Amino acid sequence: MRKWEILLTPYKQAVDELKVKLRGIREQYQKSSKHTPIEFVTGRVKPISSIIDKASRKNIPLDRLEAELQDLAGLRIVTQFVEDIETVVELIRSRKDFEIIEEIDYVSEKKSSGYRSYHMILNYPVQTIEGEKKILVELQIRTMAMNFWATIEHSLNYKYSGEIPADVKMKLQRSAEAAFLLDEEMSIIREEVREAQKIITTKQEQGRKL
Amino acid sequence: MRKWEILLTPYKQAVDELKVKLRGIREQYQKSSKHTPIEFVTGRVKPISSIIDKASRKNIPLDRLEAELQDLAGLRIVTQFVEDIETVVELIRSRKDFEIIEEIDYVSEKKSSGYRSYHMILNYPVQTIEGEKKILVELQIRTMAMNFWATIEHSLNYKYSGEIPADVKMKLQRSAEAAFLLDEEMSIIREEVREAQKIITTKQEQGRKL
Amino acid sequence: MRKWEILLTPYKQAVDELKVKLRGIREQYQKSSKHTPIEFVTGRVKPISSIIDKASRKNIPLDRLEAELQDLAGLRIVTQFVEDIETVVELIRSRKDFEIIEEIDYVSEKKSSGYRSYHMILNYPVQTIEGEKKILVELQIRTMAMNFWATIEHSLNYKYSGEIPADVKMKLQRSAEAAFLLDEEMSIIREEVREAQKIITTKQEQGRKL
Amino acid sequence: MRKWEILLTPYKQAVDELKVKLRGIREQYQKSSKHTPIEFVTGRVKPISSIIDKASRKNIPLDRLEAELQDLAGLRIVTQFVEDIETVVELIRSRKDFEIIEEIDYVSEKKSSGYRSYHMILNYPVQTIEGEKKILVELQIRTMAMNFWATIEHSLNYKYSGEIPADVKMKLQRSAEAAFLLDEEMSIIREEVREAQKIITTKQEQGRKL
């Protein structure tokens, strides 16, 4: 127990620091009165029981855990619109406080299950009392609808230990389509909001000239 | 500025206390390994500029503000499933740390705009350094899909000062339907999850008997 | 482990709620630009290992724990000046969100060890998902110097399992005297600050008359 | 107002990030069951009114503010023992997430007022939505007794606008001596605690050999 706690302490630290950093982005957007591409940020260290499960399922020896499991530290950025995902990805790429190891785009190409999300694996340096330690962090970026659906799928996968029966799978499929539809309708509205904003701004500038 | 701050201090206190209390419910569910009906809780004190706007729009004199504006302090409970709303409402009704003044059910009967949400107006006692003060608090309970849509509608209303043009209104209507559809598909899955859980529990009990 | 967690959940909830409530007092004072009698507030649930130790040392059966141990939930208010303790005690007495079961004044009459602090035992109602539950809470009120000394004594007691050797005891005694002296010198300054404030206020009022 | 908020946003971000980082040090010590040299960490952005005061008093033009005022962002680490200050200073020096610009040791050589504290000026990189921005941060490291006295002196300086009358100054002097004495007595106890720990550890190792 104690050993696990000591192993995971820098991961907890990385999650805490990145939560403050990513939430700070949101605040900066709000203060600059631009549309913020970030709705909310969550983070967690993988629970010990899940680590043990995954390690035994994937045949990973304990001394290879930190190198092989890329999601011991996990951050999630949830956006309102599909288009915001790209904005967030660019922002993450422009930062200098970590290195990006890998990017996987499950938004353009969803998984067969229906899962959509943009994944980035970061190499994040934590300053510990024993010196600097680089930590792998998985960052997931997705819309609220994608997030909602993924939560449901995750708990069903958990129930059926990954072997979801055909009829349930079909229902999951339908809800994935409904989530996708919601994202599409929201994208259409988003353009509306943007155009509305342009009109308002133009009017204000004309008002100043008179 | 100073006067507003002093007026709003007990409202901020009420919001802070209720956030801890309602988030505590979520934690209790998680520790008891039951499905938690609460996905997340947010809270805010109405910004001063919005208070002034609303007061002048509704012709409310400043000394009637606290009695007439029921949403100076606002809390929101967001659920995964439509069915969770009822569970949360019952929980709120059973508490003894405030009085319920009014309930409005915009879930069974949505507004013409498409808005769905369950509202409760609470009378919450705050202990201040000048004695007890009772505060009106508006509590909104809604699913993630309802919440998502309501956020969009709110910002469009703000842009168009309440007079959303017909074509935008139509698009909003369509996204409201998409949100409703997502909630329905999720409800169907929810039953699946529950049935699955029953089967699992039954199996486990049979396992014990052998 | 699981059982302990379920037992302690309402205690954690009480500590979280009271931290927000007592920190709120501090904020109210700051906004009203009065001297705040509260420097900071801390809280904790007693660690499980300490509960087991204390129960076995005092021969308390597990089903009597909640009734016999009054400090499963502990809150601490730390003040700048000795005089602030009385102000805080009055404030606590005037609140209506809990009942006071007992008060012990180790400030007027310090323990033989040198320990000084004002203790209040509260009966605090927590709203759980199974209904209201009343929780015993120990509230300690002390100055920063008292707090500093108590922290040191606590860790020495822990080292020597309560049997501190005579020479160490003497050193502890001397540091208790130094802490007491600091509190006395600070009280003298405090009067200075107050008198200074009176002069300033009088001047300002004369200024207005001219 | 808006301009100030935009100017100070990266300073607030730096303070938030460093609070999480420095509090993380404390947690790492606690988990490794060593004596933690950090009792608590606080942080603040200088209030706008104080910035304006200081700029006009020191004749600093507004476009030189960020370069000339080193304490727009301020962090404070409070320790139990004088000896812990050195440990913390070494830890700060070993970190790679900022550069140290300057160190001033008011512990070895206290100010004539009686003020004692160790100051470090850091150059901390914040990742903003417009790119990286380096921020000056003042870090103060002091014991609880030093901190207590400094708080009192600060508020008296504020009252008397820096011109504290001779008799009050004398009383401040006496309380500074009392604070110094407390630190000295505590240092003596600290050695005790350490020696006690050595004895305990030795006994345990002997126990293992038998």
TrEMBL record, chains A, B, C, D:
Question: What family is this protein classified in?
Answer: Belongs to the RelA/SpoT family.
- How would you summarize the oligomeric state and partners of this protein? Homotetramer.
Q: Which GO terms describe its biological process?
A: guanosine tetraphosphate biosynthetic process
Provide the organism lineage as a comma list: Bacteria, Bacillati, Bacillota, Bacilli, Bacillales
Task: Please name the InterPro entries in this protein's record.
Answer: GTP_Pyrophosphokinase, NT_sf, RelA_SpoT
Q: Name one Pfam family in it.
A: RelA_SpoT
Q: Which SMART domains match?
A: RelA_SpoT
Which keywords appear in this protein's UniProt record, sorted alphabetically? ATP-binding, GTP-binding, Kinase, Nucleotide-binding, Transferase
Record's protein name: GTP diphosphokinase
**EC number of the protein:** 2.7.6.5
The record's GO molecular-function terms, alphabetically, read:
ATP binding; GTP binding; GTP diphosphokinase activity; kinase activity
Domain of life of the native organism? Bacteria
Task: Write down the species.
Answer: Alkalihalobacillus alcalophilus ATCC 27647 = CGMCC 1.3604
According to UniProt, this protein's pathway is: Purine metabolism; ppGpp biosynthesis; ppGpp from GTP: step 1/2
Q: Which SUPFAM superfamilies match?
A: Nucleotidyltransferase
Which parts of the sequence belong to the RelA/SpoT domain? 43-164
